Amino acid sequence: MSVIINFRWEIKPEKHTEFLNLMGQAVTVTKIFDVCCWMYVTNGEEDAENNETDFVVRVVGCWDSIEEYEKYFQWREELGLHDLANEYAIHHLF
């Protein structure tokens, strides 16, 4: 059974572009894995009331199974990607 994973970070404004580049590179590598069905990055969430876009970035992906995703997640943790990504964040939600 496939599973959808949704990461959400609120990024420091001065680090926003750099973070998007980092995530773009990471997603490009991730899509090579056969067990990753699809993945994309979203940039900003609109606040219609205040006519503003914030510095929220989401990475959403679909995986063949939770077990396959957990193997991938562990590999990324071992490489230090999550720690690096969190250095750009004001806060994050997984």
Description:
- By secondary structure, this protein is α+β, with helices and mostly antiparallel strands.
- It is globular and about 40 Å long.
- A hairpin with a 4-residue loop joins strand 3 and strand 4.
- The strands form two sheets. Strands 2-5-1-6 form a four-stranded antiparallel β-sheet. Strands 3-4 form a two-stranded antiparallel sheet.
- It is built from three helices and six strands; from the N terminus they run E-H-E-E-E-E-H-H-E.
Please write out the topology.
Layout (H helix, E strand, L loop, with lengths): L2 E9 L4 H15 L5 E8 L2 E2 L4 E2 L2 E8 L2 H14 L1 H7 L1 E5 L1
Antiparallel strand pairs: 1-5, 1-6, 2-5, 3-4
Task: Estimate what percentage of residues fall within beta strands.
Answer: 35-45%
Q: How widely separated are the two ends?
A: 20 Å
Query: What is the H-and-E element order?
Result: EHEEEEHHE
Give unreliable regions as ranges: none
CATH topology: Alpha-Beta Plaits
- Helix/sheet category: alpha+beta
Q: Give the proportion of residues in helices.
A: 25-40%
**Principal-axes shape call:** globular
What's the CATH architecture?
A: 2-Layer Sandwich
Number of E strands: 6
